[in-house]
Design a protein that fits this description.
2 copies of one chain form a homodimer.
Chain A lengths: L11 H41 L7 H17 L4 H27 L14
């Protein structure tokens, strides 16, 4: 596909191809947002479970396994493994933020703490 | 479910529930890693398309639409919209890193630049 229009204008075929790719990106982003919503529901349940049964909040062995596994999955999917690890750390930071908010709620007399889950889970 | 074991030990039912939740988290993480691998394939194609047809790399209107859309999707999925926006920015940072690497490759006489896609696309 080559551009055969005047400068400034965009070949309709190119415009169409760009729209097609952007539609895929939008679909993927929607899927990921929904997956992450489910993930946070899971980590919240883990938090409540651990708080209820006095389990230690952090589990470094579990976290190390998660990182190693995600790096391998990323490699197989031709995604930079370092990015997969950064991604997990990004999510962990958000889980910690959730737990801090829940801990604050607890201090203010709200629902029981769910801040006992390991950050990544 | 209550803990009825001695201190230090963990009720097998609790251990099982924790394992069940962690399995879900692992499944979700695997799904997201694969979705992100697909996303980067799309942004790379966009980059090549834009470079080939002299389209401007950035499209602020497109990015604004992406942010607004993701925030709405997040709200509907009961995910913090601010987190959804942070997530998009996190991905954008990685896309920029990809483009910089491709630009470096180009400087060193490698493949044609794919650094013309808008960072988020």
């Amino acid at each position: 596909m080559t551009s055969n229009t005047s400068p400034g204008a965009v070949d309709p075929a190119v415009r169409e191809e760009l729209a097609r790719l952007r539609d895929s990106i939008d679909n993927i982003d929607a899927a990921v947002v929904h997956m992450l919503a489910e993930r946070f529901k899971c980590t919240q349940q883990v938090g409540h479970l651990k708080a209820r049964h006095q389990l230690p909040p952090a589990d470094p062995a579990r976290e190390a396994r998660q990182i190693a596994r995600l790096r391998t999955l990323a490699e197989n999917a031709k995604l930079d493994p370092a990015f997969a690890e950064k991604f997990l750390n990004f999510i962990i930071a958000e889980v910690i933020r959730h737990h801090e908010r829940i801990a604050d709620d607890k201090t203010n007399g709200a629902a029981p703490a769910a801040d006992a889950s390991g950050p990544g889970e």
